[in-house]
# Entry
Amino acid sequence: MSDFFGQLLGLLRVEALAPRHQAVFAAARTRQPTFARHATLESVLAALGDAREETYPEREALTRALVAEIQASSSPAWRASLASAYAPMLTRLRRRIIGNAVPREDLDQLVLATFLSVARAFPLSRWRDWTAARLRQQTAREVFRQLRKERAEQHETYTQAQLAEWLPDSRPTAPVERVRRPSVRRSFVKRDAVLVHLARATLPRSDVEVLMATVVRREKLRAYVSRLVEGDATEAERTYQRLKRQRTRLMQRLRTQDVDAAAQPPGGS
# Structure
């Protein structure tokens, strides 16, 4: 687990306990009876941190109150508080993830963003008990589903025939042994034309749309994401991180396979 994850959780606790959120909590005390015996969010977090068996009913009630506020309010106080309260659980989940398919910092964001997404969608009216266990199970299930999808996408390949069709003038004029790996800039001199071919080829539509928007039309990736996801900052950040990795993988494949095709001598392998 990266040090960044622990720092991120620490920053969320600082955010939860920021004095500017006291008025938000005071208003919530009038809506959530379980908050009534707590004067501050710090008191709520202390109660949630008490793991004794006899405190479970209050912890269950407090968790459900925080989830309800997350679903009803845009205040960052509730997201920060819930994540801070469940920092030990999130840390254990993050430590279970082993591998380098996704950068460590992206994994940190994935775990946290998934947890908050699960909380926002949690069906409080349908699931009336075992809230903490259900949050943990749903978060772990979704995180590992995303990782399986990520690894599957990384194993996708494009054939030499496809690349030859997109890059018909890629044969070198110099002897093969003198071929040098072109720079990123040189290898994508014709990238706009390549992407037009991509748009017409039988490729994943999401690959084409992201590249057409951010490479051909020169649109910023965050601006593109903001058009896809409106009004949900956490989901927008999660989508941005996913599309950034998706775009990077595709462009790296094109760079690598373009060079490989160029390095192969005519008439044989």
